[in-house]
Amino acid sequence: MRDAAIHARGLRKSFGATQVLDGVDLTVPAGSLLALLGPNGSGKTTTVRILATLLAPDGGTAAVGGHDVVREGAAVRRSIGLTAQHATVDDLLTGKENLELFAGLYHLGRRAARRRAAELLDRFDLTTAADRLAGTYSGGMRRRLDLAASMVAAPRILFLDEPTTGLDPRSRAELWTVIRELLASGTTILLTTQYLEEADRLADRIAVIHGGRIVADDAPAALKHQMGSERLTLRLARPEDVSRAGAALSAGAEDGTGIRLDADTREVALAVHDPDHLRRTLDLLHREGITVEQADLRTPTLDDVFFELTEAAA
User: Fold this and answer.
1) pTM of the predicted model over 0.85
2) Which membrane topology describes this protein (predicted)?
3) Residue 265 CB partners (closer than 8 Å, separation 6+)
4) pLDDT at 258 > cutoff 70
5) Is the alpha carbon torsion for 261, 265, 271, 273 positive or negative?
6) Strands of the 267-272 sheet, one edge to the other
C-alpha cells in the first residue's frame, strides 16, 4: 500500500524445527499506531526483529518506510527507532551522556549531540535527572530514557516491543502520555504489548497474532463489537451444572461460539446480541433445570476478544 509506513506479506521464520512465523500479514498506515497482541511465543518479537532488520525472514516480503527490509536494510535502519523489551541504556553513564553517546553513533557533531540530548531530556521530563547515573533511575525513568534514545535521529517509524512491561501503573501511564505525543507529532508506531488495556487506549488498530499467524486485525471497537453487543456472565448454583449449561447453550446458540466455562467459579460467559437473546438464554437454562444465582451484563472488553480469538485459533 502506497500510504503504508509498514507493509508485510507472508512473513515466515523458523528456528530449527520450530516455526515461529507462518505467513504474517501486516499493514500500518503512516501516522498511526498498530498494537500487536499475542500470547508468549506467538511471534510478536520475531516480527518486530524482522521489520527492524535484526533478523532475516525465511520467506515473504516486508517494506518499512518504503524500503525492503532485506535488500535495503541500511535505508530501513535510517528511518526507524527501536525500543526493545529490555532497556539498553548504560547504567554507568548519566542520562545526558547516554543520549550524547547515541547521538554520536548517528554521526551528529558534538554541538548537535548536546543540543539533541537537551531537547530529548526536556521532552521526556528527564532534565532534572540529566546528570544522574542511569543506574540510579527508577524503572519508569529508565524506560523514558530508553525511548528518548530511540528518538535521537527523529525517526518517522518507531518499534516499541513491550515498552511498559514491569512498570508500576503510574510509570505506565506516564509512558502512555509520551507515546500519545509521539503519535500526535506524526510518528508511525508498531507496539507489542502484554497489556490489553494499553492496546485499547493507544491503538488505532489491533492485530492479534497466534501460532505465527495474524488471526484478527481491526479497530479496537470493531473487535469488541464482534463479541456481541453485551457480554453476559452467569454464576450457577452447582459446579456440575456448568458443563450442562455449556452443552445446552452451544446447541441453542445462534453461532455456536463465544461461550466460556469455568467450573471453579461456577461461571458461564457468552455474548448476547439483544434483549431477546438474553431472555432466550435464561429461559433455556430454566427449562434444563439449571439454577442461576447471579447474572452480570456488561460491554465486551479486549480480554474477551483476546481469549475468544486465541482459543478459537488453538
Assistant:
1) no
2) Peripheral membrane protein
3) 235
4) no
5) positive
6) 260-262, 267-272, 230-236, 292-298
